[in-house]
Amino acid sequence: MLASLPAEPAGLPPFAAVLPPGTAARVPEQARKAVLAAADQLLSGEWEVLGVLRTDLVEPDWFADPVTGRHAEADQYAFRINHRCELQTGNIKQVWELSRLQHLTLLAAAWFLSRDEAYARRVAGHLRSWWRQNPFLSGMHWTSGIEVGIRLISLVWIRRLLDDWPRAAQLFEHDHLAVRQIRWHQEYLAAFRSRGSSANNHVIAEAAGQLVASCGFPWFDRSARWRESSARVLERELFRNTFPSGIGRELASGYHSLVAELGLLAATEAGAAGFPLSGAVWQRLCAMIDSGAALLDEQLRPPRQGDGDQGRALLLDPPAANPWPSLLATGSALAGRPDWWPAVVPDAASAIIGSMPAAAPAVTGRPSARPWHFTDAGTTLLRTSSSRDPEIWCRCDGGPHGYLRIAAHAHADALSVEVRYGGVEVLSDPGTYCYHGEPEWRAYFRSTIAHNTVELDGRSQSSDGGAFLWLRHANSTEIDVQDIGDAAEWIAEHDGYLSLQPPTRHRRCVRLDRAARIIDIVDEISGGSHDLRLAFHFGPDIDVELGSACALLRWPNTGSPGMACLDLPQPLRWSLHRGETDPILGWYSSGLGRRTPAFTLIGSGRSAPDELLSTRLEFLDGGTQTDRSAGYAAVSTGTVSALMATRPANRAGA
Questions:
Q1: pTM
Q2: What whole-number distance in Å separates Cα of residue 12 and Cα of residue 216?
Q3: What is the domain extent for residue 385?
């Protein structure tokens, strides 16, 4: 393959995909200070990578894994490397993440905003180091197309941000190795595109990277062909990968934001280069950011459904666990915003990307009010209105298992719920924690018992065949969804337990009483008797005390302190767990590579036909926030036995 590549062109034209004059002045001062502070930390050699603080980034080792201490071979043929074997490569996500070169886009943004030479020199040193140590198809950084695509986006934006630096052309178009690397990346994507069951967010990143690079670096004899081909692939795959509502078909919240960001960047780049994408593409991109805006809680945090790895398409601001405020600010700058969107603060990315000369076409038909029910994705939000503070936010999962046959980033979470109070996670989705290595942890965080739903006969609703493979899918069907003002209700069932003997269905009803601030959850197991476990997982800020008929929940040390009673179905035997490893139970992951103990309630018993298991979550509001904080603190200093005794037994069918 390497020998067949054409020679690099002579006399490359100057880089033309530049930012308009005055763009740096559009960046808000607070955002500018944040970028420079993060860049200064990078200059000192420190950078957090997926939960691990690295202190070796003055001269980074591109093949070292700080988690396992392993070092992957740098000169091995890429397609002979088993990148999922931790013994061979270490934690591949840790190693790949740094080579997305997004720490260099942030350093380049710091130079763009400050003209401090130190930032540009560090960028140049790292780029030359990476180019020298990663020849075409040599080493692990050539084993995955998504990495190649995102790295290309970084390279275009580094060149763009450094355009006024006197050595920028010398670093890129006048450097023979740099030009070869940029060509190699695009040749790779043209030859090794993800196809079939792998054509999920990976193929979006590959097409976006190819489109951005062929527009930003139109230096090669194949540039026009690459641009046209990648634009076709991007448009086709954006529609395949997302529901018409805009929610990603992977049903993994982290990849919803990544795909939306990739699409926005690619469409903006193509428009700025004079090759705009169709109005249909912009229609779908607006649907993606509109649905994302609708799903956020009052703290602008998205659901925690399915896998997530904090992936970003471009980093111009300090990394944040939640990309949505920045993504909404960028979407607003590029395509406008409906009136119902939550307010967001402009950052460096939205100011800089929004200055690109690529106005989006006018998109009609965007929702005039905040949507709450997405039929195609089976996603429903039951929430109180913004006039009642704090907000109660409840996500109900009643859709398909995931995207494509392998459903790589899905979890066995059919009919699960998330509940938040003022943005505080009360009933929580535990998250992802890991992809490669630690298979027992990967299996747990994807399992049914790790989610707020029902497990039968010790089996997950969907059966997996590996870390990114599902062999049997549990699919949910929404039966009834309605909002009558004072209350909203959702009813759905799934088919994941039809393979049991006797075949069984799980049906769940969730009802939010807005006036009483109560959530009722009623589960019905029809078709036969089975061993049953009903799980409720709590966020890391929630303290749980289990009584005979209910559990008292408290979260006094948060921005929205509160207290609630969880009345439990008494046919079940209830136990409280936290931070256990044999078996794994009672954990929460805030991001890839991070886990912390959190409380989990498990109700165990036997299902009985036509028996209803009723759970009630009642928020004990009253008074101002100061009053609530004092009241909750007072309860926490004494005993809750009197309160527990006042709770009626929550019998089946109550």
A1: 0.94
A2: 13
A3: 373-645
